[in-house]
Structure formats: structure tokens, C-alpha cells
Amino acid sequence: MRVVITGAAGFLASHLTDRFLAAGDQVCGIDNFLTGRPDNLAHLKANSAFTFMEHDVSTPFDVSGPVDGVLHFASAASPPDYQQYPIETLLVGSEGTRNALELARRNSARFFLASTSEVYGDPQVHPQPETYWGYVNSIGPRSMYDEAKRFAEAMTMAYHRTHGVDTRIVRIFNTYGPRMRPGDGRVVSNFLVQALRGEPLTVYGDGSQTRSFCYVSDEVEGIYRLFNSSRTLPTNIGNPIEFTMLELAEQVLAVTGSASKIVHHELPGDDPKVRQPDITVAREVLGWEPKVALRQGLELSLPYFRREVLG
Ligand code: UDP
Predict the structure, then answer these.
(1) SS3 assignment for the chain
(2) Which of 145, 159, 176, 224 is catalytic?
(3) pLDDT-based confidence at 311, cuts 50/70/90?
(4) How many domains is the chain partitioned into structurally?
(5) Is 82 one of the annotated active-site residues of the chain?
(6) Are residues 267 and 201 in the same domain?
(7) 282, part of any domain
(8) Residue 59: which CATH number?
């Protein structure tokens, strides 16, 4: 099989690229390096099963040779990143999704959309099952990402229903691990970098807001299984064990052995108060559930962040 992965130089899609290559598939990666990094693919330079195209998928593109799958992962994903690039984020979710769907349609290939727990917004239902429609501010500081992904889901279902494209949609919940950009502004990378530098950990608000953190190997396995399944409806893939940001800060301090203090900064606008995936569908349909606990995942991430921060 040969698959095209957009956003392949990003944190998550670079691990997914490795997963397909390990299974014996061929991968064509595409990225414009807006938030992705060449370093994430450097280990594949000599791998003849991997090819790479530098391109912004918001503008039309084609891939020569056979294409059996198109996995659309290109997008800024960290709040500071998508807020710095709001129009690019909206375009990669809209035009980018359409261009990737067209590639799949032309090749009769399977299409896989990387969607997000952000489609649930600031959820009023907890935990979040796939049947929840969400609570999103269409003009707020997170709207460029949330609405782009909601549009991308709608476009994917439209291609499925109108053109019969074989589609999959994953809703990804907070994922962390090696290859995250240390400065990407997300909470796990921020806390690990701050702890390793002996700087204060910046907790936004009172730190009582919650997230459910999934280690990257678990997330990638769930995505790989969903791609190979026959389920076309959106599917949550995430770790359902929920933590407050203060609890996360304590775990990071324990894992790093850092003496950093905790400081509180202003809570950003529209920051979801809670988030936890209901993974009943993933358990039943894919036989999948996460294996790596937060403490263990932080320990597994530490060598990478230590190299990035301390050289
Ligand atoms: N957060 C924090 N300190 C930071 C960065 C983020 O307390 O240095 C909080 C943020 O306000 C949010 C949670 O951590 O409540 C997760 O933020 P992140 O940007 O990682 O992802 P989100 O789930 O909000 O997209």
C-alpha cells in the first residue's frame, strides 16, 4: 500500500509515517514546514519507502504514482500557533481538506481526516461521546481552529455521501510525546521545558481546568486501527484519564525532579474547562484503549525534551 500523509513533518503525523513504514507500506509525506520540522523526518532520508514533497496543501496538488490512502494531518494544532496563523489554519482545514479529498477521489483511495476534540468546544456534556454536537464560539479566539476542523468534518462527509469516497474521521484528544516543538506553547511541552530550565511552571487561571493526555504511541496505534477499520463515522481516540493542570504540573515536577515553582497567568479566552473522551466506540469497534499512563508517558518524553532544551 502507498499512502499520502499531509503534515508529515508535524509531531503526530511524523510518528504516523513511521507506523505505516514499519508495517511495510510506502509513504509520501507532504508539508510546508509552517509548524512542522525537517528534523522530525531526518531519520527517513535513506528510506526508499519514503518520499517527500514540500508543498502547502491549501493550494491544489497531485501526487504521481499509486495512492491507496490519503491522511490529512496538515494544520497548526497548538493554540498559540493557530492564533498566529488564523487564515492559514482556516485554509488548510477548508481548501486543504478539499484538495486532499480530491486526491483521494481521483485515485479511489481511502481518505482519513485528523479532526479534534476541539469540535466539542467548551463541552456542556462530560465526558464527550461522538454523538455530542459541541459548544463552539464561532468568532472566538479558538474559532479559526475549531471551525476549520468542523468544516473539514462536514466536507469529508459530503465527499463520502456525494462521491462515495471511503472516509474515516478521528477526533484526537490532547496528545504529547517526543517531536513536539519545545516552544509550541502547549501545556505538556511548556511545563517540561520550564521544569528542565528551572523556570516557573506557568499555570493559566487557577489550574482547575482539566485535560486528558494521550501518549503518542497510543494515539498512533488508535489512528492506525481506525484507518484499517470500516467505521466512517467520527471516532474519539484519546486517553480518558483526566487531570487538572495543577495535577499535571505536580507530575512534571516529580518526573523531572525540578525545584521550579508554579506561577499563575491569566486564563486565555474560551479555554475549555473540562475535556475527557468517551472511548466506548474505540474500545468496541477497534479493540483499542490506551496503555501508557501519564507518569510513564512523561518519563518516556523526558530524554527528547532534555536533548532539545539542554543540547
Ligand atoms: N495551559 C497552562 N499553561 C501553559 C499552557 C497551557 O496552564 O503554559 C493550559 C491551557 O490554558 C489549557 C490547558 O493547559 O487549559 C491545555 O492547553 P494546551 O494549549 O496544551 O491545549 P488545548 O487543550 O487547550 O488545546
Answers:
(1) CEEEEECCCCHHHHHHHHHHHHCCCEEEEEECCCCCCHHHHHHHCCCCCEEEEECCCCCCCCCCCCCCEEEECCCCCCHHHHHHCHHHHHHHHHHHHHHHHHHHHHHCCEEEEEEEHHHHECCCCCCECCCCCCECCCCCCCHHHHHHHHHHHHHHHHHHHHHCCCEEEEEECCEECCCCCCCCCCHHHHHHHHHHHCCCEEEECCCCCEEECEEHHHHHHHHHHHHCCCCCCCEEECCCCEEEHHHHHHHHHHHHCCCCCEEEECCCCCCCCCCCECCHHHHHHHCCCCCCCHHHHHHHHHHHHHHHHHC
(2) 145
(3) confident
(4) 2
(5) no
(6) yes
(7) no
(8) 3.40.50.720
Q: Is residue 186 part of a domain?
A: yes
Instruction: Choose which residue among 176, 211, 294 to substitute to test ligand 1 binding: the one with the highest number of ligand atoms within 8 A of its C-beta.
Output: 211
- Are residue 185 and residue 123 in the same domain, yes or no? no
pLDDT tens digits for range 224-283? 999 999 999 999 999 999 999 999 999 999 999 999 999 999 999 999 999 999 999 999
Residue 283 domain flag: no
Mean pLDDT (whole number) for 89-110: 98
81 and 187, same domain (yes or no)? no
Distance 21 CA to ligand 1 centre (A): 32
Are 12 and 124 found together in one domain? yes
**Domain extent for 196:** 176-212+241-276+292-310
Q: Are 203 and 231 contained in the same domain?
A: no
